């Protein structure tokens, strides 16, 4: 169609909707069926496969000027994108801590995309769905009805926001206008040497800098040493500094250690410090009757960051921040502006809005796939799935203990097993084993360093993983180790 001249309207209204809905509907049904098959047949494929050079080269093409038929685009997706993902839906994926997702969650994501609503606020049911999740999360963790919660991309962002709330609670509302100034430069936070690197990034992002984060030693189970914590707090106070925050771990990144959260609460109560919990995956252990007692004290935290997309199996991404003092949470982020004017009726009603508790003004409907997941499976089934991943980890631990060629490098506390093949030049050999495992497509663990030694790290998070996947990992490690050592 010839474009309209400036100042005039085109003769025909033209939208981006299809001219032929039936053709698009048929393509959509094919895509949905193919994706169901993709998930159902996941065991028929390798966990991961290297990306061919010619496939990478296809994605260096110029910006398209003219449209391409959807069927052709889908063919390119099927041939050059879908086969070359990280593979975390596969039961053999044990790298890092990634959830496996579910077909139910995928359907919810499709529905959310169809609604295409911005869940920053306004008087709409998607906001009520997010409020429903907030209510459920309060119940999960034993928080009061005045607690607030908000969806974010993941725990890295939730940790940053938790630190910002703690900062605002200590300095007061002036920090939003005046920044840290002299007092802020004296504020000190504490965490263990085993916590995720995103904590240091969050301290940087919050304006404190990483030097304001004290990394406290851990005990033999990789839990923060509370005696060392108390001693460091006392030393910092004596030096004229101002402790304000302790960040505990509910499932450390390397081995899944859970700090003594009740003891940390005691320290924070005595010292009048904010207690934030990085519970990226381990916090959802509250759904497990076996693990929940080990999280005692989490109900007393001031804020908790965690991900539904890990042990909760919600498709990426679905992080969450829960704050005990909902009003303090709101004061930290709410930003009055004319274009965000609130009313008592109409679409602008329903205050406060999720954007009052977050840095985001553009927010997808993450709550829907979480709501679908919790409704479809229930907390008992999800808790049983969490128990099962830990039981599989214990089985792997027992197999390693019974195999003289392997050694365990850390106690198995939840669902993460760190071990290695015994060999001369063991770091090189085990790094080679991990890379070869990836390239084989049999299993995909990750690697980490523990006490200066490289470990094969198997994080069993995927609900699809079973004993045959544990046995396949063991067999492949032993075969590769014998070949490479």
Topology:
Elements: H1 21-40, H2 53-58, H3 70-80, E1 93-94, H4 103-115, H5 125-141, E2 148-152, H6 155-171, H7 175-178, H8 181-184, E3 187-192, H9 198-205, E4 213-216, H10 226-238, E5 242-249, H11 261-271, E6 274-278, E7 303-307, E8 319-323, H12 326-333, H13 366-401, E9 406-408, E10 416-421, H14 426-440, E11 444-450, E12 453-459, H15 467-484
Parallel strand pairs: 1-11, 3-4, 3-5, 5-6, 6-7
Antiparallel strand pairs: 2-8, 7-8, 9-10, 10-12, 11-12
Helix pairs in contact: 4-13, 5-13, 6-9, 6-12, 10-11, 13-15, 14-15
Task: Give an account of the 3D structure.
This protein is an alpha/beta fold and 485 residues long. The chain has 2 domains: 21-48 and 85-101 and 378-485, Aspartate Aminotransferase, domain 1, CATH 3.90.1150; 118-364, Type I PLP-dependent aspartate aminotransferase-like (Major domain) (Aspartate Aminotransferase, domain 2). The chain is 41% helix and 13% strand. The protein has 15 helices and 12 strands. The strands form 2 sheets. It has a 7-stranded mixed β-sheet with strand order 2-8-7-6-5-3-4, sandwiched between helices. The chain has a 5-stranded mixed β-sheet with strand order 1-11-12-10-9. Helix 6 packs across helix 12 (326-333). The protein is globular and about 75 Å long. The model has no long low-confidence stretch (mean pLDDT 95).
